[in-house]
Amino acid sequence: MELHVAQALMWIERTNEKIQENKEYLSALDQAIGDGDHGINMARGFQAVIEKTSSSEYETVSDVLKDVAMTLMAKVGGASGPLYGTAFLKMSMSTKGKESVSQEDLAEAVRQALEGMKQRGKATEGEKTLIDVWTPVQELLEQSEDLQPEEIKKTAKDAMEATKNIMATKGRAAYLKERSIGHLDAGSVSSYYLFESLANVLEEGN
Amino acid sequence: MELHVAQALMWIERTNEKIQENKEYLSALDQAIGDGDHGINMARGFQAVIEKTSSSEYETVSDVLKDVAMTLMAKVGGASGPLYGTAFLKMSMSTKGKESVSQEDLAEAVRQALEGMKQRGKATEGEKTLIDVWTPVQELLEQSEDLQPEEIKKTAKDAMEATKNIMATKGRAAYLKERSIGHLDAGSVSSYYLFESLANVLEEGN
Amino acid sequence: MKKIVNDPNQVVQDMLKGLVAAYPESLKQVPDTTVVVRKDAPVTNKVALVSGGGSGHEPAHAGYVGAGMLDAAVCGETFTSPTPDQVFEAIKAVDGSAGVFLVIKNYTGDVMNFEMAAELAEAEGIRVEKVIVNDDVAVEDSSFTTGRRGIAGTVFVHKIAGAKADKGGSLEEVKAVADKVVANVRSMGMALSPCTVPASGKPSFELAEDEMEIGIGIHGEPGIERKTIATADEIAEELTGKILEDMDYTSSEVAVMVNGLGSTPEMELFILNGKVQDILAEKGIKVYKTFVGEYMTSLEMAGCSVSLLKLDDELKELLDSESKAPAFRI
Amino acid sequence: MKKIVNDPNQVVQDMLKGLVAAYPESLKQVPDTTVVVRKDAPVTNKVALVSGGGSGHEPAHAGYVGAGMLDAAVCGETFTSPTPDQVFEAIKAVDGSAGVFLVIKNYTGDVMNFEMAAELAEAEGIRVEKVIVNDDVAVEDSSFTTGRRGIAGTVFVHKIAGAKADKGGSLEEVKAVADKVVANVRSMGMALSPCTVPASGKPSFELAEDEMEIGIGIHGEPGIERKTIATADEIAEELTGKILEDMDYTSSEVAVMVNGLGSTPEMELFILNGKVQDILAEKGIKVYKTFVGEYMTSLEMAGCSVSLLKLDDELKELLDSESKAPAFRI
Ligand SMILES: Nc1ncnc2c1ncn2[C@@H]1O[C@H](COP(=O)(O)OP(=O)(O)O)[C@@H](O)[C@H]1O
Ligand SMILES: Nc1ncnc2c1ncn2[C@@H]1O[C@H](COP(=O)(O)OP(=O)(O)O)[C@@H](O)[C@H]1O
Ligand SMILES: [Mg+2]
Ligand SMILES: [Mg+2]
Ligand SMILES: [Mg+2]
Ligand SMILES: [Mg+2]
């Protein structure tokens, strides 16, 4: 399992496709317990990311991730913009100087991304946010040797689905308290798409 | 055919009943080609009239009509308030000093009422307003000897129904031009109620 | 009908109570009337301005009561002209011996009720003059019909005639400048949704999800044409175009009012304004001042109107002079 | 969705164009941004105030830009916090060497984006301070959660902190008075109908014909409780009651804001205000000043909020001092 520039780009493209396809779904999830813009925000951001990356030349994975970070930061807004922006910026910094990104490198990058997001969002696990998807994925990457991409997908999916039963204490859904239970967290679903796309790219690369 | 205080009061009571019963209908007619308040306006006005007349003692028909005039003037508003107010004021002035009101007196009173309203509204016959009901009734009263109340009713009704085919050039319906054709004029319908009630009272009195 | 009201038949009295409670330092209600006057009324030796009409057009008209604008607003039932006795009370309450000037919107009811009040006032020796505002180009201007309606352009009359009176203008001078405004102001409106009078509880008309009504008034009356809903740019073209057809504004300076009818967000009014300004620029019409907001509403109707007032130096100066009315501070 | 728009994805840019076209003498847009600043920005040696948030709350925030209030408003997409680069552009555009003060409503997105911009600014040597407004008593105030939202009470922060800066207050003094306002202001809102974000085209929630939503925010989020629709008096009791439960206003003087969320007619706001004033009078709370109108909207949502700000002499003076912002003239 190894990530090069081409794969990093493909990861971003696949994520974008998923986001665009599910734009309405993500907004509908956010509508139920938030303000209904998550799909619009993510679709606007990833659209801009694709415009940027498809018209640029990259030497390293880190450079790809940096452009993704800066574009998301400048185009998404809301809560998810700074969070995803921070995540990609931390991953870019963590992979700086590397020719290719190993599983170990990826584990470290995701760890730093997660740390950055937790700090930025003043959030921790169990608050019904995208942190709840990133945490188990990070643990998986760190702990499993010779990881099968399929496992990333499954871990992210299970974690995403588990947000349904959590009562929100961060993000807009927190205003609803008990009423937030029974609904998926929109940001966790978009994070699932991110890891699902990563897994697909890694699978193809194998 | 003769009108005394008791009959004048009954005329007003009957008119009020008709108006209250048909409040929604009058408003609906006004909705179609005006602003939808004619029933509300007339019901508010006649409600106040009844409160006033039922708590007062009257010596003459003229005094009854004056209280009706002043109350309508102060409570109806809109276009119909000053028009009906003027009509009753003119009828009160015209019948002043009379012990009882003959057909001839009534014809003269209605003539003056009609004149007053035409002046007030700068309107003439054929403009799809209540003038179109008052005019034929006034002519009937003036021209027929030994008039049957039934004829007043019929004349007012026919005239009211005929407003349907007129294109409005006065009142709010005038804004609609051709589109005003095909709808009854609300003020003509309330005027019909007035004359219908008068006829009923005269019939009973015979 | 979803409204924040108590008794739907008492909305005007309830509104007036909350209104004078909001601005006790500048407004007062004439006891037992629906008349709102300046706290310091009557102002001696100043021509007093009285306007009014049905309620439901807030901030018109009571929001325009204050130094530099109106002395009194007479508030009728919702969308129903006030009665002559109420207008007469207003005239008496603000008369400061320099005469009273009535600003009347051209509706049969308003004209009749205000004229009857003027007769009552004159019978008591109060000098009264009036102007009848008829800015709505949606309606044909004919002496054989009711003629054009008065809509949002009326606010310019309040402002400018009010300023003239404030600066010591005589009754004749106030009338002259009000006539000038009326001669130079044109408006045109449209709606996306109807409104509901509280006492009736029913929407004033029905529009399909893809329809809009062009040439709408401010009382929930139907407009002159029903069309498929258009873009903001197309709506701006249509409203402004109709006004420019009616009067020649070439190489003149204008004041622009983009007025919301009730539930149209300011966001949309500004979007519309962007195109209105472009159109005027293209035609070489110079914009002196722009007003975007809710100035003459129709309860919670969605829609807007555009008004253009051709200005000369006198009108500019009066438009710019101070106003302390709660809804029109300059 | 019935709206006066062109491209639903371009509403913010289109709005800003129409906004600066309306007030060219007082506002300008920083090129290639969604930032609106005072025409005379940066004002040398004055602490500059920057606020903003998602669009759709007009006249917030751009309507509050002007001498005596904000120096810049950063306009995000509809109901979506603006991005850090835009906030940073605003900070750079208004910095007059006396520091920049950020007024942030307490939403995760707003807080994060503004804080990131502050970091960028500090890295360039610009002094930045901030206040986070959280006046909405509908939401529980807990350090373990997102905490209370910032809603209409924010306008008082703009006004008072803006006046302090205008009078030459230092960055610390501006922050101190802003903190004082936040400590003393509470709000509570309700809705009768949802709103529709142009880019989404769907209503934010659904309410039955006889339902209202209590404890609503300003982004179309669901409220805290759904109830059968009540009278204006009952709504006033509920909103004011919740505020008075939260903070002790006994024998204090207050500023009152009765804020319309978008499509509620002023008539209804005044009716509500009548009862709010009665309740306060009963409790011996003295009203110093009242504001009734649309100050912080939620597109075309029907509903309102009530805010109470406890005043001392400093706050009174700053509340009364001049403001030239288009949407808040004093
Ligand atoms: N404090 C936080 N920490 C981490 N994630 C958060 C936080 N607040 C919100 N989120 C995530 O952001 C998502 C919402 O994003 P989005 O709808 O785009 O922004 P907004 O909430 O500003 O409308 C939520 O579903 C949640 O996963
Ligand atoms: N100029 C006029 N002359 C005579 N009658 C008129 C005139 N204008 C309106 N009317 C009558 O008044 C009626 C409308 O009354 P109403 O709805 O109560 O007042 P408004 O038109 O002010 O809402 C019309 O149906 C018409 O019969
Ligand atoms: Mg959201
Ligand atoms: Mg009518
Ligand atoms: Mg009417
Ligand atoms: Mg959002």
Automatic annotation (TrEMBL), chains A, B:
Oligomer status and interactors: Homodimer. The dihydroxyacetone kinase complex is composed of a homodimer of DhaM, a homodimer of DhaK and the subunit DhaL.
Pfam family, one: Dak2
Top-level taxon: Bacteria
Record key words, sorted: Glycerol metabolism, Kinase, Transferase
Gene Ontology CC: cytosol
InterPro entries: DhaK_L_YcgS, DhaL_dom, DhaL_dom_sf, Dihydroxyacetone_Kinase
Function: ADP-binding subunit of the dihydroxyacetone kinase, which is responsible for the phosphoenolpyruvate (PEP)-dependent phosphorylation of dihydroxyacetone. DhaL-ADP is converted to DhaL-ATP via a phosphoryl group transfer from DhaM and transmits it to dihydroxyacetone binds to DhaK.
Gene3D superfamilies (alphabetical): 1.25.40.340
Protein's UniProt name: phosphoenolpyruvate--glycerone phosphotransferase
Any one GO biological process: glycerol catabolic process
NCBIfam families, sorted: dha_L_ycgS
Keyword Plastid: no
GO-annotated molecular function: glycerone kinase activity; phosphoenolpyruvate-glycerone phosphotransferase activity
DhaL domain location: 6-200
Enzyme class: transferase
Reactions catalysed: dihydroxyacetone + phosphoenolpyruvate = dihydroxyacetone phosphate + pyruvate
Pathway(s) the chain acts in: Polyol metabolism; glycerol degradation
Transferase listed as a keyword: yes
EC number: 2.7.1.121
SMART domains the record matches: Dak2 (SM01120)
TrEMBL record, chains C, D:
All copies of domain DhaK, residue ranges: 7-328
Associated pathway: Polyol metabolism; glycerol degradation
One GO CC term on file: cytosol
InterPro entries per UniProt: DhaK_1, DhaK_dom, Dihydroxyacetone_Kinase
Entry annotated with the keyword Transferase: yes
Catalysed reactions, semicolon-separated: dihydroxyacetone + phosphoenolpyruvate = dihydroxyacetone phosphate + pyruvate
GO molecular function: glycerone kinase activity; phosphoenolpyruvate-glycerone phosphotransferase activity
UniProt subunit comment: Homodimer. The dihydroxyacetone kinase complex is composed of a homodimer of DhaM, a homodimer of DhaK and the subunit DhaL.
Top-level taxon of the source organism: Bacteria
Natural source organism: Radiobacillus deserti
Gene: dhaK
Enzyme class: transferase
Gene3D superfamilies: Dihydroxyacetone kinase, domain 1, Dihydroxyacetone kinase, domain 2
BP GO terms, sorted: glycerol catabolic process
Function: Dihydroxyacetone binding subunit of the dihydroxyacetone kinase, which is responsible for the phosphoenolpyruvate (PEP)-dependent phosphorylation of dihydroxyacetone via a phosphoryl group transfer from DhaL-ATP.
Keywords for this protein: Glycerol metabolism, Kinase, Transferase
Keyword Phosphoprotein annotated: no
EC number(s) given by UniProt: 2.7.1.121
The name this protein goes by in its record: phosphoenolpyruvate--glycerone phosphotransferase
